[in-house]
Amino acid sequence: MLPDVRRQLTAESELEVADWEDPTLLARNRLGSHAPLRCYERVVQALEVAPGDAARPTANVLPLTPAKWQFLYVPNVELAPTPSARHGGFDTAAEGGGLRWGTIDVPLSWEMAGFGKPVYTNFMYPFDPHLSTPADEWDTCPRVPAAHNSVGCYQVAFALPAAWEGKRVLLHLGGVESACHVWLDGVPIGYSTDSRLPAEFELTRALLAGKLGGSQADGRAASAWERSRTLSVRVYRFCAGSYLEDQDHWWLSGIHRHCFVYCKPASCAILDYSVSTHIAARDDDDGGALAAPAATGAARVRVDVSLHGPSTPDGVSVRYALHGPFLLGKLQPRAGAPPVAAGEAAMLPARGGGGGVYEPTDWRAHSMLATECAHAHVECEVPQPALWNAEAPHLYRLVLALHAPAQPGRRGAAQPGGAGGALLDVEACWVGLREMRVRGPRLLLNGAPLTVRGVNRHEHDAARGKAVPRSSMLADVRLMKQLNFNAVRTAHYPNAPEWYELCDAYGLYVLDEANIETHGFFVKSDEGFLAKRRAWAGAFVARGARMVLRDRNHACVVIWSLGNEAGRGPTLQLLYDCLKALDPTRPVQYESCGALRYTDIICPMYPSVAKLRSMGSAEGQCVAYSANGRRYPSPAERPSRIGARPVVMCEYQHAMGNSNGNFDHFWKVVHSTPGVHGGFIWDWCDQGLEMRPPGLPAGELGGAAGSNGGGRARAGSSAWGYGGDFGEAFHDSQFNINGLVWPDRTPHPACFEVKYAQQPVHLALADWRWTVDGGHVDGGSAAGARVSAGATALAQSVRASLPGGGGGGGGAREPALLGGGVLLVENRFDFAPLSALRCSVRLLVRGACAHESAPARLEAHARAREPLRVACAVPLRKLPLELLDALGPHAPPTAFHLDVRFALADDAPWAAAGHEVAAWQVALPLPPLPIGPAAAAAAGAPGAAGAAEAGTPPKTLRTPTVSPLTISTGALAHDVRVRNAGGVEFGFDVRTGALTSVRDARGVERLQQGTGGIAFNFWRAPTDNDQGGVEFMRRWSWVLPTGIGLGVNLLPRLPYWLVAAVDWAGGRCGLPSIGTNVSFRTIWRAEGWDRLEQRCAHGARIEHVPDGCVVVRVSSVLVDRASGAERVHCELSTHVSPTGHAWLSARADVRTPLPSVPRVGLRVAVRRPYGAQCSWLGRGPHENYDDRCAGAHIGVHSMSADAMHSPYIVPSENGLRVGVEWLAMRDDSGDGVLFTAVPQMKVSVSAFTPEQLHAATHDHELVPDDFWTVCLDHRHMGVGGDDSWSRTVYEQYRVPAGRYEWAMGVRPLARGEDADVAAQNAILDAPALVRRMATGIATAEPTATAS
What we know:
Blueprint: E1 4-5, E2 27-28, H1 43-46, E3 61-63, E4 67-74, E5 102-106, E6 119-121, E7 151-159, E8 168-173, E9 176-177, E10 179-184, E11 187-193, E12 199-202, H2 204-209, E13 228-236, E14 245-246, E15 249-251, E16 254-255, E17 259-264, E18 269-281, E19 296-308, E20 317-326, E21 341-349, E22 374-382, E23 388-389, E24 392-393, E25 395-403, E26 423-431, E27 436-439, E28 442-445, E29 448-449, E30 452-456, H3 470-482, E31 487-489, H4 497-506, E32 509-513, E33 517-518, H5 537-551, E34 557-561, H6 570-582, E35 588-589, H7 609-614, H8 618-621, E36 625-627, E37 630-632, H9 639-642, E38 647-654, H10 663-672, E39 676-682, E40 689-690, E41 720-721, H11 750-758, E42 761-773, H12 794-801, E43 816-827, E44 837-845, E45 848-852, E46 856-857, E47 865-875, H13 881-887, E48 896-904, E49 916-923, H14 933-938, H15 944-949, E50 966-969, E51 975-979, E52 985-989, E53 994-999, E54 1015-1017, H16 1042-1050, H17 1056-1068, H18 1080-1087, E55 1092-1095, E56 1101-1104, E57 1110-1120, E58 1126-1136, E59 1142-1150, E60 1159-1167, E61 1173-1180, E62 1193-1199, ...
Parallel strand pairs: 14-33, 30-31, 30-39, 31-32, 32-34, 34-35, 38-39
Antiparallel strand pairs: 1-2, 2-11, 3-17, 4-5, 4-7, 6-15, 7-13, 8-12, 8-17, 9-16, 10-11, 10-13, 18-19, 19-22, 20-21, 20-25, 21-22, 23-24, 25-26, 27-28, 28-29, 36-37, 40-41, 42-43, 43-47, 44-45, 44-46, 44-48, 48-49, 50-51, 51-52, 52-53, 54-60, 55-57, 56-57, 57-58, 58-59, 59-66, 60-65, 61-62, ...
GO molecular function: beta-galactosidase activity; carbohydrate binding
Protein name: beta-galactosidase
InterPro entries: B-gal_small/dom_5, Bact_Beta-galactosidase, Beta-gal/glucu_dom_sf, Gal_mutarotase_sf_dom, Galactose-bd-like_sf, GH, GH-type_carb-bd, Glyco_hydro_2
């Protein structure tokens, strides 16, 4: 037991300040940290659990949660009551001052029950954003204003089992935010700080002190273990330790993890134990890829056991047994199986002297050494170990049994593990045999380089705050594995113990981070302010050491972190030394020290792709660069002193809203740069909290109705709140809505890009050849074909692979296109072979499957390559021959693709068989086909009639005979209608030249009337990244350092040309850019891109042209409505074809000095019924953008228009699909409208206009229109995502000033009509200008960007 971890004051009467205000008072009577104890009664009980199982209750553990506790919320700490022995705790009958006792669920953050307000800040301290504490008080009494410090008073009654009498009884509080005092029956027990680690107290003495009192019905005196006991806990929302917990998440309060009481034998018991492993593995000394998995020798396991008792326990023995290996879902514990290693430990004297007193800056002060009476040390060897890694997380079960000395002449009950004295205590844990090492720039696990596919994860539950249920943790683990993550950073504090158990069993590497962050001292221009103050050193060391002492037995923990954004200072160097002394088996990292000595890993935040690439060398690691608002590394050790270290980005790719553009660029660097091992995305989950509508009965919540928000979601949407939604005075708005998944763990579209870039299989097309064959084709599979590399043998080889061998059967063989080639398959797993996956190959022609192989297995081992030979055959009648003939080498990139997919062959614990682990799409070269009807007939192909007789109509229809178009005037003078002989009609507004109406032969309208028709479109609702810049800091400018505050207010007000000029001049002098810190949204709105207005000098001109079309032409200028400045000169020519198709030929001359405009395209409103089904040929099915489309494959995709909307919590531009050749929108009957494009377009379909999205603050507040807003873009700026506070869209994904030219077609679709056939015919029948665009003759490239 630790009497008082603080300066020399030991009694409350000596305190000059309240406990919760004293930064040196870390705890009173709190026990040292230790490995989780299970308190098994028997050895067999410890062996009945399987990996990943929840902890099972034993007779030695009394759970206190989950349960309802009595609760009193006090808004001001000075009004909080104190338990007393007279009342046996809090006086729950006392009322007054508006205070009333109720109940609350435990665990739960009390704000989620309606008590007080949740507060979100990125880095400001909500209780003292000014950091107003005088300089001479930081070491004694930093400001924690009482008026802002609420208190939660908890109370629960319990009774101990009679069997516990005579044993040590201990209380475990799993997590309390931020500090607490504890009483038992009104008697003070202790005090604790640190919101993210357990607080344990011994209750034995208090229980014995209250032994008298109470009686039973039979008149016997009630023992201390049979009477009801009352546990009282007073929790403070803030304390001095809160200055170390400024961690970019919700400031919430209360008991948020599980609590229980447990007992241990009083004579001697296992107090703590640590496990370390060493693997005799061959390292990959040259740093290259291994040709085979590293050879593995024996594994050594070392166990140190700390015992507790009244004296040195002579004759007591510790017996150990190591059982296994086990693998979740495959190798399970088997009753009666012998251990792989077993033995008995020798007893050694106490290392800590059985009562030593240590300074708080010594890690031993926070361990169990002060109460240790003896310890045992054992080592064993596993000759053929099954090693632990994230791909095959083999575990062993270590069981420790403590036996009393054998009594001569006394026969005790036989105990598992051998004969001897009585069994006193049993503990057990899962052990993974693995070893972490840093060798130069390489991070090695079991001797092999480790790839870190990681994500940062806050503990967050939308309904319970920081009280995360195990079911939610399990969902996170499974989803992370499904998305190809293999690592997680516990940002920015140790997580609940259940999390590590799941990561052990399912296979996730954990970067375990100490509960330390002082980001808010940025306002003092020194995040390391507290790290430089000796009085705070004990708190730093306690938080790091207690984490290691609790978590060091977990195989999943591969790296320790000193904390996050706590600056630099001698205390962090001290903490590094403590952690290395406590656990020398793992590397330690820390981002804020740059390249100083106290990090084993260079772990930057938000580097650019170029900077990341340079960091593979020691020199590159020490070159300063700007990121995340500061200079890296600053300062740095000289490269020659330390050398290159591994690089793991502790944060990269800020997933805020519609984000994560450029993601695949980072992974190209990871795979090509030795020493760069990966990183952790920021972050996992949107930290939205449930918003309850006004008037919700408080009921079980116990708080004021509706006190935590007032959201009411529309159908299909969820009401999740962020900073400012709960009436809090200080907040950072939506900056915590930056996860890859929504609060309910539904993946954002960006997840599929992440999954693709991180997938463990890579493909490259090594060779591909086509030929045409007249052999028999019956649609059979070509699975497993092995084709000759020679072109002359290709046809024969493919024919031989088809059913029947292609040699028999009657009748002429139908002409077919045969393809074959070689794909190089690279296994990017670090340890696992590809044998657990099944590979399937499909040939896609215009996005539709034309040939599919049966699944096959590959055997490539980790980091190796294997050739995959592919063969396919497609009848010529299934090919778009006419389109290929018309466009030749300029056929769209949707023509021919190979889809290669790798799926689980069998069920895995985290996904069912068939789950897609990796998918690649390879564009194939165009085949040299005998194109055209005559050539096909000469090759023996059946004609159209023959095909019809065979039941398969030609894929591409012939152009029908057409009749002249008629022009008429509508009801209004400006309404002109053009109608073909079949009755298809197009309407125009001659004032603007806009196409306003599309009607089928029955006169049914497709476009929404009264919306202006098809018009130019250059605006988008800004994404969070578009809004990211210094503007976000304006809310805090009043507390920022003077220079920064001035810049935050001034920069956004400067004209862009001036900012650009300053950047240009600064670049010549080697200074960092400041212009990129002004957001796109600001510079767009300054130029009026959100308020463009069309002005036409003349109305539209209508004329007939020689090819039979009617052309409507108009020229216009788009101007800033506020200033009148011209922004875009536009020309639009609409060609109405006699075949019933309208082509809009568009030109836009964009004139701006800005680096990019939002988009260049057209916009139209389509009637609501035609959103029942949307299908398109292009990339999908999920949302994608030019800088986030690698994982969106080309195909024919289909979903409802509603499903195309991405409901980001803060509405913004969303739902785009790129690389689209055509878009079909249909109603329930199948009627619809078809949009086609030359070249390909980018489309979105939404129930909300960009203006609605921009104006809304929450998705659930959006009210759908009665039409669909369809955006048909020629160019659209990427979304960026390297960070969310500067302009991170790469140049190649921007839309600069220049002249753009494209064409878009529209026509009605009839039910049953094939959209792809209609789109092909639209191109075949397109006017000459459009055809020239399609064949690349007429091109329009943007001019150089003005600057």
